[in-house]
Amino acid sequence: MMRILILQGHPDEESLCASLGRSYHEGAKEAGHECRLLSLRDMTFDPNLAHGYRQIQPLEPDLVKAQEWISWCEHLVVIYPIWWGQMPALLKGFFDRCFLPGWAFKYHKNDPFWDRLLSGRSAHLIVTSDGPVLYNILAYWDSPVTVTRKMILRFCGFKPVRVSRIGSIKYTDDHKRRKILERFRKIGMRGR
């Protein structure tokens, strides 16, 4: 059994992403995994990294809790939609404020390399879009996924980082959405 943290990055409680988070959580709990669900819409924090890394910006209690839960987990699931070719602003702000030097990674003093302080954890991205998956990959080089997968999670040590892409959401009916939710409930049962 695994310790799983689901990070739900869509600000709307009625979204498919929110339903995916609940379905994955149900499946994981049903299978006996220890599972926690963290919805960014319920957190209170300033998403603006006002001074970059030049000046320390105190973490709000919700960000402290998020760091504790990320440290606790063995597997991180991040669920978000693609908006304007990228993750929602609130999720980007969460990564900016939470995945800090000294906690998520640490640069070496005398070379260009770094230590991945969140190593030993795996991750799974579940990404939705109104556009077709293949179009996002071919036309945009999969940048909404590549940034999160390689430049954030792998940079900090998560490995492997699996990806599930769900496209053409605006064309799905209730029957298809139920099938999608059931698929991710089963993935949650497997802890992947």
Characterise the protein shown here.
- The protein has 192 residues and is α/β, with parallel strands linked by helices.
- The chain contains 6 helices and 7 strands; from the N terminus they run E-H-E-H-E-H-E-E-E-H-H-E-H.
- The strands form 2 sheets. A 5-stranded parallel β-sheet has the order 2-1-3-6-7, with helices on both faces. A two-stranded antiparallel sheet has the order 4-5.
- Helix 1 packs parallel to helix 6 (174-190).
- The longest helix has 17 residues, at 174-190.
- 32% of the residues are buried.
Brief descriptors of the model:
single chain; 192 residues; alpha/beta; five-stranded parallel beta sheet; two-stranded antiparallel ribbon; 6 helices; 7 strands; 40% helix; 20% strand
Which oligomeric state applies?
single chain
Helix content: 25-40%
- Following the backbone from N to C, one meets helices and strands in this order, namely EHEHEHEEEHHEH
Tally of individual helices: 6
Instruction: Give unreliable regions as ranges.
Output: none
Report the biggest beta sheet as strand number plus sense, adding barrel if it closes.
5 strands, parallel
Structural class of the helix and strand makeup? alpha/beta
The total of beta strands comes to 7
Biggest sheet, spatial arrangement of strands: 2-1-3-6-7
Percentage of residues in DSSP E strands: 15-25%
Radius of gyration: 17 Å
Shape: globular
Ends apart, CA distance between termini: 11 Å
Q: What is the mean pLDDT?
A: 95
